[in-house]
Each structure stands twice: as C-alpha cells, then as structure tokens.
Design goal:
Chains A, B, C, D: GO terms for molecular function: nucleotide binding; oxidoreductase activity. Four copies of one chain form a homotetramer. Chain A is of the alpha/beta class. Helices cover about 35% and strands about 20% of the residues of chain A.
Amino acid sequence: MGAGRMGQVHGPNAVRTPGLRLKYVVDPRPGAAQALAARCGAAVATLEQALDDPAVGGVLVCSSTDRHLAHALAAVDAGKAVFCEKPIDLDLDKAREAQPRFRDARFVLGFNRRYDPHFLALKRRLDAGEVGALESLQLVNHDPAAPPPGFIPTSGGLFKDFTIHDLDMARWLLGEEPTELFCAASCLVDPEIGRLGDVDTARTVLRTASGRLCVISNTRRSGYGYDQRVEAFGAAGMIAAGNVVLDTVGTLTEDGLGAAPIAPGFPQRFAASYRALLAHFAEVAQGLAPSRTRYADGIAALALAEACGQSARSGRAIRLQGDA
Amino acid sequence: MGAGRMGQVHGPNAVRTPGLRLKYVVDPRPGAAQALAARCGAAVATLEQALDDPAVGGVLVCSSTDRHLAHALAAVDAGKAVFCEKPIDLDLDKAREAQPRFRDARFVLGFNRRYDPHFLALKRRLDAGEVGALESLQLVNHDPAAPPPGFIPTSGGLFKDFTIHDLDMARWLLGEEPTELFCAASCLVDPEIGRLGDVDTARTVLRTASGRLCVISNTRRSGYGYDQRVEAFGAAGMIAAGNVVLDTVGTLTEDGLGAAPIAPGFPQRFAASYRALLAHFAEVAQGLAPSRTRYADGIAALALAEACGQSARSGRAIRLQGDA
Amino acid sequence: MGAGRMGQVHGPNAVRTPGLRLKYVVDPRPGAAQALAARCGAAVATLEQALDDPAVGGVLVCSSTDRHLAHALAAVDAGKAVFCEKPIDLDLDKAREAQPRFRDARFVLGFNRRYDPHFLALKRRLDAGEVGALESLQLVNHDPAAPPPGFIPTSGGLFKDFTIHDLDMARWLLGEEPTELFCAASCLVDPEIGRLGDVDTARTVLRTASGRLCVISNTRRSGYGYDQRVEAFGAAGMIAAGNVVLDTVGTLTEDGLGAAPIAPGFPQRFAASYRALLAHFAEVAQGLAPSRTRYADGIAALALAEACGQSARSGRAIRLQGDA
Amino acid sequence: MGAGRMGQVHGPNAVRTPGLRLKYVVDPRPGAAQALAARCGAAVATLEQALDDPAVGGVLVCSSTDRHLAHALAAVDAGKAVFCEKPIDLDLDKAREAQPRFRDARFVLGFNRRYDPHFLALKRRLDAGEVGALESLQLVNHDPAAPPPGFIPTSGGLFKDFTIHDLDMARWLLGEEPTELFCAASCLVDPEIGRLGDVDTARTVLRTASGRLCVISNTRRSGYGYDQRVEAFGAAGMIAAGNVVLDTVGTLTEDGLGAAPIAPGFPQRFAASYRALLAHFAEVAQGLAPSRTRYADGIAALALAEACGQSARSGRAIRLQGDA
C-alpha cells in the first residue's frame, strides 16, 4: 500500500525477508505502482483486489500520512496482519476512536528506531544494569536537510512527523510515561517553514512521575548528515550510542584529522532497522510473537507530539495524563 | 583571601604566574592560612593588613560564597584589582546593589570555563564560521559525585553553585541574552539533598530573542567522572568539545574495547583554565587588558540561576528581562 | 564450482548481483551442492554439464585451493568468464606455466580487499594527494582464531593462504613492485601448527626500488576479532583505515569506557567487498570493464608469498626479480 | 651540564622537582649558560667548580652527545649521582669500556619514554595480564620534521639518535632480549641526509629467543606531528597507546569530521615523562630507589642501534649475542 518513499524501502525488504513474499503493490499512481512492482517481482492491484485475495496474509501500509488510518482499518477489517508507517494519523481523536478496532489485530507500527542494532545494544546494556538505574536521557535526532516546503502542510509538522520517533524512543527507554513536557521551538532553517506555521528547530524536555528527565534535540537541517544519538545517564555511569560513519578512514596532516562524514540520511543509517522491523512483522503476522510497537504506542507518542506543539505555541509547560 | 578548596587552587597558581607574586594568605582559620602560606612562600595576614599594604596590587577572593561580595568590596574600595570566585553573591539584589561600586574596578570573575583551551578552541572555530551561524547549543556539566550534605545549605543550591557556570557559558557562546527559560529538576542522587530543599539533576532550556536554543544538562553525581562537553550546532554543521581522558590507552579483547576513564574532577579537567584565568587577572590588574569575565557577567548568570530555581519550583517557563 | 566456505559467500551474492544469475552449483559432495543450490534457487550439475551449457557465461571457482587452477583452466578453455578464489595455485611454477592460457580471458581474481569500501576510500584519498607521495605502509591482518589443524596441510601455509592478501594490498597501494623482502615468523599460537611445518605469527618487510617500505603484520589468532587496518604514510601526513566495530555503543563508568568489539571475522568485515567483487565480475564477464584483479596479480602475490616462506625459514632477506 | 635543547627541558623541571634544587648551570657558551641560569635561579659555574662543591649531590648531563660519557664519568668519579641524556656515547666500545666505573653509581639514563604516563598505563595493563602473554609489538616513532642537516653528522645518525628510544622500549616491553634483527632503511625525506650517509625512514624487525616479534617504524618527518604509538599483541587481545591530541574539539560538516592535530613535538608530548624522569632521579640520587633506566640499558640499546645500521647497510639480518 503505497509506492512512495517508504514503500520503496519496505517493498524490496519484504522480498528479502524470510516468511514474507510481496504479492501486490497498490498505489493510486499507476506509474509508481508499476515501477515498484517490477522491482519487487510483484503485481499491481487495487486495494480491494489485494484485500479480497485470501492468499494475502498481511498488508504494509506505506501510503501518505493522511491515508494511514483508513488503509490500516481496511486491512484489519479484512482480517489481515497490518504493518503501518508512523504516525497512525495526524488527528489524535480519530486515532483514539479507532483504537478498539485494533484490539485483537496483529499490528506492528513503524517505529523503526526500536529495531536499530545500535539502539538495541544500548537498551541491552541499560537493562543489564551496566550503569545502574536510569536517571536521564538525551536524544538527538537531526535531519540532514530541510524537506521541500511542499511536504510541510501534509506532514503533520515537525512534532508529529519527526519528533514522534524520539517521543517513542523516550517512552521505550525511560520505561515510564512522561507527566510533564516543555518544548521550545524556533524557525531558524527556512523562513518558508515558519510561514507555513511550522517550526524547524526544537528542544523538548520530558519529566516522569519518578523524576526522570529526558531532552530531545531536533532540527530539520543539520548541515552534517543524519545525526542520531542517544545518551542514557544512570546512577553509576552513562551509555551512549554514537553516529555511524561512512567509512573508518582518516587523514592526519599538520592541520589535524580529517575523517569521513556520518551517514547522510535515514536510508543509510537505518537500513538494518527497517529489515529487522519487517522480520518482526513476519513473526507477528504468523502469530509467533507479540508486537513490539503496538497501536497504543502510536497513540501515546502522538499525544506527546500534540503536547509538544501546544507547549511550543504557548510557551508553557504541559501536564500530561499518561495515555498508554 | 580564603585558604579553602579554591584558595588551594589559585594560591599555588599565583606563585607560578608571571606578573603575580603571592604576598599574603588571609583566612580566619589560622591552621589553613598557615598551611597554604607555607606551600606558597607567603605570609599570613589579616584582611586589614593585606589591604593596607600599598605593595599589594590585587586580591584573590576565594573565601566562602557568603563572604565573596564583602571581601570583593573591601578590596575594590582599597583600590586593589580583584579576582573573585563565582558566584558574586547568593542574593541577586545585594549583588546588583553593589554593582556601581565595581564600575571602574579591575575585576575578573572566576568563570574559568571561558579560559579552558578546549572550550576556547571551540569558540575560535565557531567565530571562524566553520559551521555558519550558531543555532543551538548543548552544554553538559556533570559532577562526578554528590557533595557532602553539609555543603548544600551554604552553597546556593545546584543552580547558583553549579549551573551558574553553564549559564555563563551559554551567554558567552550564544552571543545573545536568553529571553525565556525553562528548568525541570529532580532529586535522584541523594534524598538528603531533597530534604535540604535542593535538587541534584536538572535540564534547563534557554531561548534567545532570535530563537537560538540552548540546553544545559546537570547532575551532581555522574558515576563516571567529570563530564564537561559542549556541542554547538550551526547552519552548516556542528562543533563539539569532548571529554578529556586520563590516558590514551585501550585494550581490545573479544569483549570489546576497554579504555581509560575521563578526568575525575575539576582539578584535573580544568587545571589549564585556572592557570589561564590567573594569567588573565595579571594582565587586567596591570591595566594591560580589559576583563573577559566582568562583574556584569556575574550578575547576568546569577539572574539566570535564580530563574532556574523559580522555574523548577513552579513548573513554569520564565520570561527574562535581559540583564547584562 | 564449490559449495564450501567461499561458495556459500559468493553463491548467494551472485543471486543478488544485477547482471548475474546462478544457474548451477557444482560440488563433488552431493549434500553440499544440494544445500547451496536450494538456498540460491539453482540446479545441481556436474562440471561438464555446466561448461557444456551455452547459456552459462561465467564460472565462480570456489573449490578447494588445490583445484582452483584446474577448474579455472577448464572454464577458460570452455570460453567462459572466470572468477577465481585466491590463491590461483600453491605451486608457483604451475601457475606461471598456465598463465598464457589466461591471456585473453575475462578473469577476476578474488583479492576482495581491493574492493572493500574502507580500503577504497583510503586509496582514493592517497591518489588524491591528501598526504603527498607515499613513503611507507603498515598493513595489519590478524585472524580472530587459529584454523583447525586439519586445515593447515592443504592451506598452503600462512603465507600463501593468508599473507597473500596483504602482499596483493601492498602491491596495489605501493604502486611499485617490491625488490627486497624479509620475513620473521614464529609459532606462538598453537604448537600443532609448528609441528605441521607452518608458522602462525609473522612480520614481513618489503622494500621497493625507490625505497618505499611496507610492513605486514600477521597472526592466526588475535583474540579480539578480525583486525584489518592500513596506515599509509606520505610526505605530508598519514591516512589510516581503522577497524569496523559491531556497534557504536559505549559505556562510561568510573572504570573507564567499555565499547563494542571489532568485527569478529571476514563474513562481517568484508561482506561489502564480496558483493562489490561479484559486481565487478559481472562487468568483466560482460566485457564492460577490464579486470581490476588479474591473473598476473595472482602470480605476483604468490611469488612474494613464496619469498616470505623462504626468508622465514632461512632467516635471510630475499632479493626479488619483480614478476608482474 | 649543558644549556642546549635538553638542558632547557631538564633545568626548569629540576627547579620544580621536590628533592632537587638547581645550583649551577655549566655550559662552554657563556650566553647560553647565563640565560638558562637566570631562568632557573641558578649560578653559572665551570664543571670543576660544580663538581668540587660538596653541596652538589648530583649532575644532569645534558651536553652534546659526544661529551655525554666524559661528563658522566667526571661526575661519577666525583661521587655525584648522575642523570645522563641518551645515548651514553656514539661508540659502543668506549661505552662498554667505561661500564665498570658506573657499577656502584647512582645513575639514571634519559630513556624518558619509560616514564610516560600513557606508556606506563600500557605496561601496567600488560603486566596485569589483560591480554595474556605478549606475542608481538608495534612501535611507531615518527618525528614531525627533519632536523637541520647540520645536526646529522654529530647526531649518531637515525639509529643511535632516534631509534635508540624504540630499541629501549622494545627491551622494556618484550621482557626478553632480541636475538635477531633486520632493518630496512631509505632516504626519502631529504636527499641531503643521504648525502651525509644517513637514512631518514626505517623499519626494524626484532625477534627474541622465544619467538616474540617487534616492529619499529621510524621516520624523520611525518608531516602530521609527533607520532608516538605502541601496540602490544597478546594471546588474548591487544593493548594500544594512541597519540595525544592538542584539544578534544571536532567539527562535523558534510565533508566529514575535522579534529585537532596530534602533539607537534617532544616538548608537548613528553612533558610529563620528563618531569617523572627527574622525580625518579631525585629518588635515585637520595638512595631511595634503584634506577629504572640503568647504564646497562644504555649499552644494550646502543648495541641494537649499531646492529640496525649494520643490517640496513648490508641488507642482511643480524644475529645478536644479547648484551644486557
């Protein structure tokens, strides 16, 4: 479902994932559907055709954000397993309203960072108690370059499109729901983004009931690649996941060290996570494992993203109910 | 003036600084005064004796925080150049009130981080435009281990004693006054600190008029040494100052890399900055250079520290007037 | 040709390489052939069947070392393009004798390190003049753990089986043939290796006509993973290619930094190089590019490997004729 | 004794070393003697005056290489403790002949690398068994820039002036005497050095009786600073001591990482080792500790340096008797 940017990531991965076979590509744009289908050895079909085919066990929802929920609902109502790209929807109320229909679904949400081997290694060390009880967290998520202004209006804005990944990471790593949130945001990258009512640079502070603190650092344009880092501070030390660099080569001259850039964007940085995500979906679709990124996680992160916007606009800290 | 922790840093440095000679050590505790004087080849004197000596050109105020202002005033009134440890005072109003008396003084405030070679190298790269216009800032200042509870009541608390360094760094690097501040703080390290009305873990967000953002990360106990880092994000990249490690040795086994700890505390990490600070004081005292860390910088940082406390207690963002 | 260790690397890669399709798997052991064929969607065939099939354009020679040359000759005589694992043969004279029959062949030798993205990045920087004229070279090639003793007798020994890669790298990077060689070797890892007449730890020094120097460091058992590094020293600096680590995560405690191990073996470390090698073979087989690792490169490296053995046994430096 | 390059290092250090006081500076050049004496609060004297003064307990021999032995002998005959810069002498036979006269001397040789905190940390880890039994060693010692040609004729050449440090390091770390040595050397940096009969680029391989291997990498001009590294390979891993960098600051842009240069020369890199060396001399002079770098160490390293030259000239490996 969807032969755009994310469909082009997940389609070819599905082909290579043991337990998955890509039968159909569905996209309203025939050219895009045809191209991806050819690349993946799949057929082009309509949504109805695909859902009516009893040989189809699951659906990858990679359509545009405003169609995620409708497509996911259609698939779940047809009894299919559903992989759905984030966010579930831009409208928190609509997403909450639909939640009961996913209660028994085999559903995996595309919070791919939870499947990244580096972040998983950090989580494993944290859970193993290498630094004692977690006290605070620093998440850095900087995009390499601002999206085209045309993307902004339908994107949901910085918080629902981008920060939502970090809000999910925060929940995953903190092991506790945030109860307070403050977000300061600016438009420093591209004034056009500001004119469209969005921001491009933000810092968000979360606090949990037990007092754990988390800061999320976001920008739409780093100028130096796709900066993806985590620092977890515990009672006895810190664990950090650093950036992935393009190669291990460095030049030393009298001017100092010159080394390779970091990964330029999500396709390079998160390739392994996308493969692991689909491998997990294959397990979930076959009933072999419970989902690690559930519908409820999508709701919780979306609620936090909404609070970010509210805080950034008002200049006030927001008290949260807890949602998950 | 003061033979305690900071006097024992600055006294011996003064001995080695070209242009300075340490003539007297003043401390109400005769034993402490005597010990430091012996170590530095100086004599013990009372404050009056020292200030009356026309051969004395300047005073290093290293007394306890609650005496800083009184001692600095006595020295400036006696026409001496003054080096004063931070903070100027715990009471912002008192410090503001005294400000006119320092108008013409040769006065250097002990914001030593501005003199650290690593942070100076970062500033130089930033000013050279290596990453374009500065957009945001991440400051990490984590103490290795919590102070004894007895230190808390007279310390001014986390913000005036500790965060004040970062607030000064933020002003120095941002090149613009913060206009908004939010601080979330917790007591996670030692419940005794909470019982004394203080906090030990905090995140502070600053926003300037032009929208620049800065996050300050503090804890009283890192568990892994004295974590002192800066990341400056510009329009075309980032500049980072990392930690200093104890040695360059690492062991590789099948379990991975084991490398040396970072500097355990301020004496190791900031030794060079303290020497540079006194060298600067020697210049200022001799009228050869204007002060790089002025009384007004102390006021501005203190006002921000007070706002941190206000924000942390109320859970609200604070609007700032600008002070410097 | 060959469903053993290297066949299991190259077979699946061939399946994924644009321009290649794996039609047959040939191996005298029916079970091994069947298993790999099934994994790759290929059929099992005899050598004759495969070479007789006019639809077969090329052959991947991944058989045991003592069969490399015979299989490569059969394939080239049948007019097929040939990819051949190193070494061409253990007997330098036999390999030289056969050389004329490969004169017009589309032939790619499996010196995969030349295709590794990290080493290519180093070569690119070197060729771009980042450090001026190359003066000396340090190559580190340490296997993680000693092979089973049963492997030693047919392996060709440390130099022809293992060092041969570095000898090729040296020729590739030095851009000049070595004219002198000295090799000091010991048996420190496993006395059984010594009993079989081989060594497991060696240092080889090469010198070229213009005086460039190269050191090769080898061990059969590093104890810390697959250490693969290059340092190239030029007139104006150095370029180094470091190890690939398993993840970017590190833990800081009062004991220091604990970070991830390096890649444990060639499958992890050189996966990308094996893919690039087959992509290059596809080009060469289709006549789109000249081979970057030719038969003559195999002869030259083999001659150097033989000189290593001679030097190590005699304790003398060896003068070389130049062979390529 | 000697107010040249090394006198200017050790003189001021002596002033600051507890247990030492610098009474006289001796140098045939009155201007040099006067300048250093003034800087150190010492008096200028002749050798005789200094040795005749019963208040003088020890002598620092920092004169030109060809006077080391004569000055050390004069001092030891006068019953003084002796610190002597390396090499003891350029003539191995003369140095050996004088050896009995130092039998009971309190004598410390200036092999400063053994006192470097980084190399000591490596040695400590090695001795603690972090990587099991040592098997091989890689020593890198690259000077930043070629010395003026005028220095070459009296220097003893690359091996006795420069490699001698590494030969001592090798003996110290291997814990066993080398029994075989091969050295390949070239003149690549400055043809003038070649015209004077010296070389500027070399690789030396040592082998001990038990089969341990060591490679020493030397150049007179690195182009990127003072490269000083050690890698020790054991049965269960490796320990490496890396370079010291000037600051911890790095800039990330789309072109990659730009970080600070390594220490440019020995004054920056080995400052701590020179201080530790004099502190050790103070202990030895007062009879509180046995010397850690003895006359015999100087002889052994000198014999190896001579073998380097012999091997480089002849192109042959050299069998060694063992000397220490």
